[in-house]
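ARCHIVE CARD
Drawer: 12
Card no.: 0347
Subject: one protein chain, sequence and derived structure
Cross-reference: see card 0346
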Amino acid sequence: MTDNDIMEEISKGYLELLASSCGYFNATSRDYGNDLNIRKAKICPTRKRYLTTGKSIDIQVKAVSEIFVRL
């Protein structure tokens, strides 16, 4: 893996962690250039499981590193 690939995976993991702590989950979709599809989750009290509410956002993650040296 290149450095940019590693940084992109770390960024996606961070976004998934942040989303899950706020009641959202990731429906990973690698189609059409989207890296993450974050959806709102709501617990269904009768079935004791999470269901989607229809709210979602598609995210494409980019990561770049550059080293600048000043002389």
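Annotation on reverse: The beta strands are 24-26, 36-44, 49-59. The mean pLDDT is 78.
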